[in-house]
Design brief:
single chain; about 325 residues; alpha/beta; FAD/NAD(P)-binding domain; 7-stranded mixed sheet; 5-stranded parallel sheet; 19 strands; binds NADP nicotinamide-adenine-dinucleotide phosphate
Length: about 325
């Protein structure tokens, strides 16, 4: 049993989790890093990162590999396992159930499990997933050489991924439900200058239409007048946000209406000893830089929690 007991367990090895593991390891805490797949999280689905200080441009997988090597160099143990539940026990340990292995136990848990792409929930989406419907440009873009593609969404991800897809596609049409983009101005300006990108604003995709094998068109509705039309495409990439992986805790932790955990300034959730960092946490933006900042704070606070016992909630800006 003792070999499955850790001072700190980190659930999810994206940038937040890798950073938390690095700091927990540096603090000489026995640290477990649980990840169902390869370490790197969303970095593995991102081609180029241009907004991580110190790297003018680096590929997502390269940054993931560097972060993993660095995190593990301070002693955190990476275990490949899918976590199914986390339960705080009366004795101060948290029981972490995983698939196909005995449970692990930890004094403090840092939740960094990221999220899943949000689905549109329209006819044809599920039916043609992998046959013209995709949620990952880096993974699937190369299958669409010379095709006219659609990207659905108006946030940072939609515009970045649409630009990435222009290297394969003959043309990429970004379809957004409003007249204004949610994405950063820099990305919007860059997208507008890309000759292979065009934009269909105020338009909603109502159905993804295919023949027996693959997507052939989108059924669109123009928002101002409700006019419907068919829009022929070779494939559709959907980037309409994502849903946080916050279903692992078996007890209630406070969250916002979208399901993101609410934390104090120490990244502690409303459950003592359970911390949250990165994309599972309610915050203004979800960047690699904010994820690593969250991971740092969470690991330092979790270390304090393990060493000193239950910590008082810390309000942002409070002086202790
Ligand atoms: P996001 O910022 O939440 O944007 C989602 C977009 O999808 C919005 O434009 C939204 O429209 C649209 N949308 C949502 N549900 C829809 C539906 N059912 N039908 C049609 N459109 C729908 O999500 P994201 O772009 O995935 O970004 C997530 C986070 O990652 C953000 O914090 C972002 O800043 C960050 N990120 C950053 C970068 C970068 O900095 N380089 C790159 C990627 C992601 P409305 O605008 O009308 O709500």
């Amino acid at each position: 049993m003792a070999d499955r007991q850790y001072e700190i367990a980190v659930v999810g090895a994206g940038p937040a989790g890798l950073t938390a593991a690095l700091y927990a390891g540096r603090a000489m805490k026995r640290t477990l890093l649980l990840e169902a797949g390869l370490p790197g999280g969303e970095l593995l689905n991102t081609e180029a990162i241009e907004d991580y200080p110190g790297f003018a441009s680096i590929t997502g997988p390269e940054l993931a590999s560097k972060m993993t090597e660095h995190a593990l160099s301070f002693g955190a143990e990476l275990v490949t396992a899918r976590v199914v539940s986390i339960t705080p026990q009366d004795d101060g340990w948290h029981r972490i159930e995983v698939e196909e292995q005995d449970p692990f136990f930890a004094r403090a848990v840092i939740l960094t499990a990221g999220g899943q792409p949000r689905k549109l929930g329209i006819p044809g989406e599920q039916e043609f997933a992998g046959r013209g419907v995709s949620y990952c440009a880096v993974c699937d873009g190369a299958f669409f050489r010379g095709e006219h593609l659609a990207v659905v969404g108006g946030g940072d991800a939609a515009l970045e991924e649409a630009a990435f897809l222009t290297r394969y596609a003959s043309k990429v049409t970004v379809i957004h439900r409003r007249g204004d983009f949610r994405a950063q101005t820099l990305l919007v300006e860059r997208a507008r200058q890309n000759p292979k990108l065009e934009f269909l604003m105020d338009s909603v995709v109502e159905e993804i239409v295919g023949d027996q094998n693959r997507v052939v068109s989108l059924r669109l509705r123009r928002v101002p007048d409700g006019m419907q039309s068919d829009f022929p495409v070779g494939g559709v990439f959907i980037f309409v946000g994502f849903i946080p992986n916050t279903g692992l805790l078996t007890v209630h932790a406070d969250h916002d209406p979208q399901g993101y955990y609410l934390t104090d300034a120490n990244m502690q959730t409303s459950v003592p000893g359970i911390f949250a960092a990165g994309d599972v946490r309610a915050q203004l933006t979800r960047q690699v830089t904010t994820a690593v900042g969250d991971g740092t704070t969470a690991a330092i606070a979790a270390t304090k929690y393990v060493e000193e016992g239950a910590a008082e909630p810390q309000l942002a800006g409070a002086i202790s």
